[in-house]
Amino acid sequence: MDMEQKFTSKTWPESPEKTTLEGKNKFLGFWLFLGGETVLFASLFATYLALKDRVPDNSHALAQDMFELPLVFIMTMLLLTSSLTSVYAMYHMKNYNFKKMQTWLLITVGLGLAFLGFEIYEFNHYVHAFDHTFTSSAFGSGFYTLVGFHGAHVVIGLGWFILLLIRNSRRGLNLYNAPKFFVASLYWHFIDVVWVFIFTVVYLMGMVG
Amino acid sequence: MVGGLEAMVIRIQLAVPDSNFVSAGLYNEILTMHGTTMIFLAAMPLLFAFMNAVVPLQIGARDVAFPFLNSLGFWLFFFGGIFLNLSWFLGGAPDAGWTSYASLSLASEGHGIDFYVLGLQISGAGTLIAGINFLVTIINMRAPGMTYMRMPLFTWSTFVASALILFAFPPLTVGLFLMLFDRMFGANFFDHTMGGNTIIWEHLFWIFGHPEVYILILPAFGIFSEIFATFSRKRLFGYSAMVFATVLIGFLGFMVWVHHMFTVGLGPTANAIFAVATMAIAVPTGVKIFNWMLTMWGGSIKFTTPMLYAVAFIPSFVAGGVTGVMLAVAAADYQYHDTYFVVAHFHYVIIGGVVLGLLAGTHFYWPKMFGTMLNETLGKVTFWLFLIGFHLTFFIQHFLGLMGMPRRIWKYLPNQGLEVGNAISTVGAFFMAAGVLVLIYNIIITQVRNERVGNDPWGDGRTLEWAIASPPPFYNFKQLPLVRGLDPYWIEKMEGNDRMTPAEPIGDIHMPNNSFIPFVMSLGLFIAAFGAMYQVDWRASDGAEYGWAIPVLVIGMLITIGSMAVRSLKDDHGYHVHKEDLEKDDEEGGRL
Amino acid sequence: MATTTGSTSANPKVNYKYRRNKARQEMRAHVTSFAMMIFLTLIAFIMVMSGFDKYYVFPVLLLLAGIQVVLQLYYFMHMSHKGHGAVALFLYSGALVALIVIITFMTIVWW
Amino acid sequence: MKNGLKKWRLLPLFTALAFILSGCGEPFLSALQPAGEVAQMQYDLMLLSTIIMVVVIIVVMIIYVISIVKFRRAKVGENTIPKQVEGSHKLEIIWTVVPIILVLILAVPTVAATFILADQTEMEAVDEEGNRTALVVDVRANLYWWEFNYPDLGIVTAQDLVVPTDQNVYFNVIASDVKHSFWIPAVGGKIDTNVENMNTFYLHFDGEKAQEADNLFYGKCAELCGPSHALMDFKVQTLSPEDFDNWVTAMQEAEAEPEPQNDLAARGEEVFGEQGCIGCHAVSPAQGAGISQGPNLATLGERSRVAGILDYKGDEEQHEAYIKEWIRDADRLKPGNTMGGYNEDDLSDEDLDALTEYLMGLKVYSE
Ligand code: HEA
Ligand code: HEA
Ligand code: CUA
Ligand SMILES: [Cu+2]
């Protein structure tokens, strides 16, 4: 099958991400990878929970003293919304509407960048207001590693979207790149899933005690 | 091979009491590297090599699902291994045991542990990739008619082992990251004065470590299953029970890791739960053992070299397995733990299981992979030398352990009743080494003589791989075969056919291009690892911080990320092997 | 909606109109689940801000998070579609391992 | 082939040999010669599990040998095609259920013993005056040496652990640098000395068995802890309860600054101060618990070994020689230890003689 075959919105297959064998493999392989990532983040969560509030002495700030819930709440909203916008993008991908897909992906990227900006601000705040750094305590190491790993995933997700957008800006959709867009959006949803737990376990439960 | 050499040094050092063949620090480096190399750089990759060569053939696929990732996995693993071994030349190898327990590994001076952490991180990424690749291959690429319950057992065990890789390697990755951050970036995960906790490392390591031993043994079980069926001329007894047992072992493998930590002081409740869970694994493993024996029962057994290994495997592995169950008796493990009893246990299961499996697989699949037969007489010589040596070396170690010999000791002092046992053990190791030398000789003369063989050189082949040429053409199957049941080739043979019924007409075959990028990506990480390591001053043996380190770290990462970007920017549609060429291949007599 | 013309696409298996329709319906489900996610997050947030007792809050928080994840997986990531058998198997196995890891770390890493 | 078969038939025999051999090893070191309740319990578990395992091996061997003898191709004919049986439900159920039963037989005593050995309630018991009735020892593991602190008695020793026989002794163990593991094979299984927490367990030293071992058991470090992990031995002196009380009294009455016995020793004491030995080593049995950087030397003159490994076998001269060798060459004797050696430039031969004389005189109980 010719990969760069041109389609119309009517000839475009129903599940373009799974029409070719390569696409099918990519789709499945990526899901499996997400299964592995689940365990990866679980290990990080577990480590964080074991080290939460473990500090060398009393002068060090604890979770309850620091976390800025309203700020984190806004971040959560941003990321949740970006998850929806990427669903929109996939909706248009399946309808073979490249322009709209691009637009929604761009919005997704924008929301992701905003999230990242808040996160950087947040970290900066903890470091300066509370001397809560990566090296100041085991608590700090655990916190920044867990949340930072998530942040790194956001960065990678954004980079991936941007790369795909640039690369394919001229050539439109075809069966070669459709699976790529699809898989990237799966990744983005997964990042959101992880964040739901970070918000709940680290921030909300951290504030309660 | 390097791992084997290290083992010989260990045994020479321990041959006599109070020996000074190697120094204390060097001994710890050797023993760490022996364990690490054998597990990560010998046993696992060799098994992967068989999986790679055999699994696509067994399920009737043209290739693995992701050829690109396949080569990426290989190069990552390759550079990880090189990096780890460079430690010998760059200021000292890791010296905290293959388990690298946190308090000692943080206290360890020089860069040894850094080599361990970064090397395993890189090669571990390669392993994870390989695991995903096999899973997708097996799920998506089976030939028409090849249902899950018709897959050969080696494919099944590859499947389960790959699933274990998928879930077991992430905890190791995290553990290594934590150690990396602690050692190289000032984090405090394992520093108890800063609130850290070393037990976290132990858990993460063993959550990985225990499934890891099943990652090693399951494919070996798979190889043996093929061999028993082939050389008994009989269908595998209780096939579906075998499949179920394989899956169950994989599943239980995740619930028992604390049996390595009975003496840590986790409390009687945890110890009791994990003790019982561990013992439970004896049941599915027993099912397999009995099914193998019943496969031979009523069959027509031919004692070829691979079959000899398979036959020797049963008592050897059962002996190792039952000592495993003894170790699972938590209260008694307080006595066994960290003694030579444990060393004896795991060499019995690893050598009696995994290494015998590798050696059996080598003889069994050599003709398929290279088109020549290893010499059977020499093969049998290797077998006997290795087997006798193996029992001689490790049987006595059970008693050494119970007589009070801890493991990982550089020397033992005289007059503690440990001399005789150790001497015997060392003699045994020389037998094994001799066996391996004969094998190497065998391989060399076989390749020099280069006598080609046909597609089913053992005459009793049952599964798809024996239906095509040895070695197979690079596109494996010209036409995908139609699978009509378990042991498809056997079915066709019994009906008097000499080849598989094709499931498709001859057509063009789509093949991927070879790519240079995986190599560059792995190289980038390799370079970055040096940067990460040398940017810390307080560890360096000469106390220096290297100005070039950070830039090197950055450059390395850029190379990797850059080549990833190139990969996704450059379209790679592969190429086609045309129908006409395929037919020409055929006429030239590539087949049968 | 009355006419289902036979002339749909070059790919005869696919009925274009029907597909469009289904996609639109799905989109509605997406928006609803998004609204629910926002709502659940809000509840969780308010619960914490208003300072209930932790033994009461924790289970509810985890439940809310659980629901959100299911929504993400089944609606946004399409796990409700068919052909996700292997996917579900591996994701749940992963989740199981994840759970075991977290439980042990919360019970037998202490001091 | 024949040879091979014989070899395998021998395997159960080997295992039977296990029982004969079980009396083997040295009584002061071997877990196969249990010298106390704890070790006995563990030994019994080993026996039980070994018996089950031997049964398993025998069953496997019977089926195994029959099938490889009876169904060789040479015997059944080159061209026979065996019947392709699928399996047998009955057989499969048997070999699932029987192992489950065997495992259960093993699991019950395992769980019971695990809980019994973790039972620490007696440790907290107090008499009418609120004093603890059980003997408690705080063990601190350091790079290659052991400190034993008796918190209720105000006594510290190092390298040689002194315990009374025929009663439970409770241990609180911790490590001060990296992880080690506390193990007295003949008396009971080990427990790790972690860096971040205190582990607690108990042992019981049997009076009669102790005599067979000359009242001196070997203890070992069972966790890789660095280059000299292999040499991190300690010794356990067992005393009858009365003798133990005497020992306690002697230790408690020992003066804070031991009086040098002669001029040479007096000079030695000076050197001890000048060289900074005093910075790491306490010389009175009440000092330095939990904090000192080197072993307490108050009882050095009566220890069974120098530095836990140099066995002078009761020979005074050898004892002196070893002390000197240690001070000169600590680095070579135990690579990686924190004391390091003192060569001629640091410490003249005369000073070394004086120092040794002084150290040899550090005795409390045997005086
Ligand atoms: C291939 C590798 C491999 C395999 C397959 C196994 C298999 C098993 N292992 Fe082993 N193990 C290791 C590799 C392996 N192990 C390594 C490398 C270490 C040390 C790591 C380190 O510290 O460096 C170790 C350490 C180790 C320990 C920790 C010891 C300690 O450090 O204190 C324990 C404790 O429970 C254990 C148990 C078991 C058990 C119960 C099995 C079971 O799976 C065995 C099951 C098999 C059988 C039981 C035989 C066949 C069954 C029958 C014939 C049925 C009837 C049987 C009965 C009813 C009993 N192993
Ligand atoms: C795969 C794993 C593996 C293998 C094969 C071996 C093989 C051997 N090991 Fe290994 N050993 C370990 C894994 C392994 N070991 C581990 C994990 C440890 C613990 C380390 C630690 O404490 O941290 C250990 C520790 C260990 C000790 C204890 C050290 C100590 O605690 O102080 C000793 C001592 O006798 C020892 C001896 C030997 C010997 C004599 C062999 C001989 O069998 C070697 C002879 C073999 C060869 C010379 C070559 C091997 C052949 C192949 C791999 C197959 C070849 C296949 C093809 C060519 C296709 N080993
Ligand atoms: Cu201390 Cu080994
Ligand atoms: Cu294990």
Notes on the structure:
- The complex is a heterotetramer of chains A (209), B (592), C (111) and D (367).
- In chain A, 75% of the residues lie in helices and 0% in strands.
- Chain A is an all-alpha fold.
- Chain A has a domain at 74-209: Cytochrome c oxidase, subunit III, four-helix bundle (Four Helix Bundle (Hemerythrin (Met), subunit A), Up-down Bundle).
- In chain A, α1 (21-51) runs parallel beside α6, α3 packs antiparallel against α4 (98-130) and α3 packs antiparallel against α6 (178-208).
- The radius of gyration of chain A is 20 Å and the shape is elongated.
- Chain B has 592 residues and is mainly alpha-helical.
- Helix content of chain B is 65%, strand content 1%.
- Chain B contains 19 helices and two strands.
- Chain B has helices at 2-14, 24-58, 67-86, 102-107, 112-140, 153-185, 199-231, 239-252, 268-280, 282-296, 305-327, 330-336, 340-370, 376-402, 419-449, 488-494, 517-534, 549-569, 579-587; strands at residues 509-511, 575-577.
- In chain B, strands 1-2 form a two-stranded antiparallel ribbon.
- In chain B, α1 runs antiparallel to α2 (24-58).
- Chain B is globular.
- Chain B starts with a helix and ends in a 5-residue tail after the last helix.
- Chain C has two domains: 1-80; 82-111.
- Helix content of chain C is 73%, strand content 0%.
- In chain C, α1 (16-49) packs antiparallel against α2.
- The radius of gyration of chain C is 21 Å and the shape is flat.
- The chains are: A mainly alpha (209), B mainly alpha (592), C mainly alpha (111), D alpha+beta (367).
- Chains in contact: A-B, A-C, B-C, B-D.
- Chains B and D meet through α2, α4, α8, α9 and α10 of B and α1, α2, α4, β7 and β9 of D.
- Bound molecules: heme-A (2 copies), dinuclear copper ion and copper (II) ion.
- Residues 141, 180, 221, 223-225, 229, 232 of chain D line the site of dinuclear copper ion.
- Chain C: Pfam families: COX4_pro.
- Chain C: It is a multi-pass membrane protein.
- Chain C: GO terms for molecular function: cytochrome bo3 ubiquinol oxidase activity; proton transmembrane transporter activity.
